[in-house]
Write a structure and sequence with these properties.
By secondary structure, the chain is mainly α. It has helices spanning 9-16, 20-53, 63-95, 118-166, 171-193, 199-205, 217-220, 222-239, 244-258, 261-291; strands at 210-212, 215-216. The protein is built from 10 helices and 2 strands; from the N terminus they run ααααααββαααα.
Length: 292
Amino acid sequence: MSRPSTVPPLLITEALGFSPQLLLDDIINIANAAVTDGVNGLEGFLQQWVEKRSAGKQNYNNQEIEQGLVAFQTLLEHHTDLAFDFFEAWCLRNIFAIPSELPIVLPHQENLDLTIKPGKEEELMEEVARLRAQVDNQQRLHLLLSRALRVAKKKRLQAEKRLDKVSTVDSQRLDILGKLPQQLMAMNNAVINLPPLDPATIAALTQFPLNEPGKREWETSKTGYLNWAVTQLTERTREDQPGSSAVVHSIMHNVEEIGKADQLRQAFEVTEHLAIGLQDMDRSTEHSKMEE
């Protein structure tokens, strides 16, 4: 009679959560421990029995007791091993055996497709590895974006604080101030293009009377410059008639040293524009104070 095919032991172990062989080994070990305890108890009983029988005698032989205990232990172990060998074989063939024709599907194996080829499984594993790498990259990107967001929030708070400090300035004032750098640059370029003054010219100019405190007459405006030149020419001519031509020549030389008419006019126009811009800013400041 052929033995019926059964389910592989690994499936039974997976279903039970433990190996059936380990359970049977524990049962056999318990039986062997009981045999050992019985032999030890019998040995103690025989020792007491011999001591009572040989009371008053000095010499008695324990060899027969030891031989009897060894024979008794061997007999018990033989029958125990024989019985539990049959018990183990019977359990493995009947209790822990499932016929192969009986369909068994574990809960975690439900809806599994066992017809997939090994090549397809490798492709799926590669796909899983690729998806895991994507998830890892997304987590790192999320961490970087979180850090960047925190930095952006800090910068935004700083910018808002700076805006609060600047928001008190009037917009009209800002427009006027925005035009000042261009006017200053134009004036600077015009002044740079003027020819340098020699020491003699500077000494001569410092001897002329001033029209306003801190300003020379020729520095006030174009008209002031012309009046200054005509006045100086007339006075020098009246004072020294023989040398009038020399005085006129000297004045013309000084004028050329200061600059040409176009250059001076350009410098004066830029200065006037700058003054107008400053006046507008002062008026807007006064107007804002009156509104407050």
